[in-house]
Design goal:
With about 150 residues, the protein is of the alpha+beta class. About 35% of the residues lie in helices and about 20% in strands.
Length: about 150
Amino acid sequence: MLLTVCTISCRYAGHLPVCTACTTRQVTLLGLLDLFVAFNCIDHDHLLQRLEHGFCLGDVVLWLIHSFLSDRTQQVAYGGQLSTTRPLLFGVPQGSILGPLLYILYTAEPEHVVTQHGMCLLQYADDSQLYLHVTVSNTSGSAVFCCMCQYRQ
């Protein structure tokens, strides 16, 4: 966790939450999360259920996403040798445009955890930033720590 104190001048203070906090003499408590191999752990059936029920996607869209995720294989090349081809039963492709979007939709639910703790969330794929603006006298960081622990679950 980082405690940031704003000592820089912000040209666009109205657009940056940290700079806005600085203009009101607050500090920002920041928690950075990088979920290791997160893209590889997504269960396809669970993802499709979340997309159907949480985002009300229709049958055609769900079928297209299922088709995008299905019948994927991997093979490893090492020392001039190729391994046998193995099916990929979990995960979303990282080198695609759709992969990070599917990951964000899959992990949209934890945003409720963050807001319960009165914090804000910025997310790009598997990198998350949890932050909270507080007065200088209230910089214990316990809210950030509790939120990060619950968010990881």
